[in-house]
Amino acid sequence: MTATTMPTTTDNQLTAGQLPRFSAIAMLVVVVAVVAGVMALFGTPAIGAVVIVSVLVFLAAMYALSWAVEGSRRAADRTAGHVVTGFFVLALLPLVSLVFSTVAKGLERFDVQFFTYSMRNVIGEGGGAIHAIWGTIIVTGLATLISVPIGLFTAIYLVEYAGSNKLAAAIRLFVDVMTGIPSIVAGLFAYTVFSLILGPGTNSGLSGAIALTVLMIPTVVRSAEEMLRLVPNELREASYALGVPKWLTIAKVVLPTALAGLVTGVVLAIARVMGETAPLLVTAGITASMNINPFADPMATLPVFVYYQYMTPGVPQDPFYARAWAGALVLILIVMGLNAIGRFIAWKFAPKTGR
Amino acid sequence: MSKRIELKDLNIFYGKFHAVKSVNMTIEPRAVTAFIGSSGCGKSTVLRSINRMHEVIDGAYVEGQVLLDGVDLYDKAVDPVRVRRHIGMVFQRPNPFPTMSIRENILAGVRLNNSRISKSDADELVETSLQGANLWNEVKDRLDKPGSGLSGGQQQRLCIARAIAVSPDVLLMDEPCSALDPISTLAVEDLIQELKENYTVVIVTHNMQQAARVSDSTAFFNLKAHGQPGELIEYGPTEKIFHNPEQKATEDYITGRFG
Predict the structure, then answer these.
(1) B148 and A352: CB-CB below 8 Å?
(2) pTM value?
(3) For residue A284, which of A184, A205, A166, A183 has the smallest C-alpha distance?
(4) A110: alpha, beta or left, given left = phi > 0 and alpha = psi -120 to 50?
(5) Do A243 and B82 touch (CB under 8 A)?
(6) What's the confidence (pLDDT) of residue A12?
(7) Class of domain A115-349 as given by CATH
(8) pLDDT at residue A1, as a whole number
(9) What is the pLDDT of residues B147-184, one digit of tens each?
(10) pLDDT score for A3
(11) Cα–Cα distance measured from residue A14 to residue A22, given in angstroms and rounded to the nearest whole number
(12) Percent of chain B clearing pLDDT 70 (strictly above)
């Protein structure tokens, strides 16, 4: 009987026992039920304790079962797979919980008024974040306009012209150092620059954009450098061999080939700085009114709007909290939208391989 | 169209490394010249020095002269970009531009240089170049499809068509068939035979039969020892090199009794 259902190496060198596909899921259900049942005997168990004990028991039980039926190599393979899956779920939990709570709490004020009104003359309920939405678009837009050319040309210099000279090594070092700058330091830097030029205490959208630029340039340089290095040298040589000058080779062969990756890198850099709060707190500041002039007066941005709504609520507090959650939801949606656009562009411009 | 190349006391360096030592040879126009020799003996390096592709590598430089119909390509007044417009090159691995269609690949030499070309001229150039590379019949219905979708042999012929579309005087080929199957190799070899009517063709190959089949003259390069610069050992009509070589090293290499 055992020989037919569970062939061993003695009757055939090439076959081995196999557990059915659903065995892992079935085992998980059984283990959770048993662990919860046993722990319930000693009083109501904490969910965390049940999860941790269940996972450990499941790993041990599955290993033992697989070892008995499939052999030690398969058993080790299964255990490794379960551990990897477990950590993946662990990493996913905060993200899912964050998106869930933001959507749940943000939808309350996710209405037309939120997208048409500013906070001008609003002290209790109502009001909106249109001024902060425009502020975020203007500030990150300006930061992108400044840092993408600088970052891209730096990357082109590093990959295409510098080779391994000392200047390139110095630039790479500084870019790495800049990646690690705390964002508040970037904000204070921009604040100081504008205070020195225009007098102390000036807030403006432009100073916010400068602060974000400091954070954005290293990200753009790094990603663009990686992407340009991925372009095969053979394509550059093919272009040179046709008598094409170096700058045209870069402009018409290297950049188009790397375009998809470059766009993705820029979009990720924008998404990264869009949610920055600390540097904008000290530079762009906050205002209740619409201000679309980045060169003068404070400009509200979504992260700072959320911060003030949540940290300094009026009475009653609930409308302020609701606006904060709606602001956070809008910010997440904008970032997700940017990612989607980036992916679309990357897909659209990716080198064609179809037949 | 076709021009004579003379190498005079050519020494080639990669930084401090002396790669090739004093090469003297004359490459005849309207003929196929093959470079043979073991790996690392400098034949590709010599080939790349003929259209100044050699100096694309950091720290690489050349001493001596390369004359194209009497004009020294390494003269200070010479622009390497212009040299490459006269001396085309085909590489070991087919390298069509992945962002471009078949048609755009052929026109790359024109378009990338920002030159304007009328639609009818462009159509004609695409057709003559592809016909010149024996590829027209296979791709004429899908000129707007990406060049990277072709088979390896077709891609290599596409690269040859791209190289001849800028009407060079000389065509350099660096092991053009080493990544191809025998049938594609045959197609490319037939093409080389046709190309020599109009161009000076120089081909680097590891395949001795190929050198014997396609070339009029053969140059054998070798190293004295590892770390020493490569040298031109013997150069002459292919018939003579293969049947009656003067040097012992050449005979050993050709008969496979090497090293």
Answers:
(1) yes
(2) 0.82
(3) A205
(4) beta
(5) yes
(6) 65
(7) mainly alpha
(8) 42
(9) 888 988 899 999 999 998 988 889 999 988 888 888 88
(10) 45
(11) 24
(12) 98
Name the helix (H) or strand (E) containing B66. Answer: strand B60-68
CA distance A171 to chain B (A): 20
* β-bridge partners, B173: B90, B203
- Rounded to the nearest 5 degrees, what angle is found at the Cα of B84, between the Cα atoms of A164 and B78? 85
Tell whether A347 is within 8 A of chain B (Cβ).
Answer: no
Q: What is residue B1's predicted lDDT score, i.e. its pLDDT?
A: 60
Strand order in the sheet with B60-68: B71-72, B60-68, B5-14, B17-27, B230-237, B217-223, B32-37, B200-204, B170-174, B87-90
- Mapping DSSP onto H, E and C, the string for B183-199 reads HHHHHHHHHHHHHCCCC
Q: How far apart are CA A201 and CA A171, in angstroms?
A: 33
- Chain B CB within 8 Å of residue A230 CB: no
Q: Are B57 and B14 in contact (CB under 8 A)?
A: yes
- As a whole number of angstroms, the distance between CA A349 and CA A342 comes to 11
pLDDT-flagged residues of chain A (< 50): 1-4, 7, 9, 354-355
Number of Cβ within a 10 Å radius of residue B217: 22
> How many interface pairs between A and B have CB atoms less than 8 angstroms apart?
95
A242 and B162: CB-CB below 8 Å? Answer: yes
- Per-domain boundaries in chain A: 19-105, 115-349
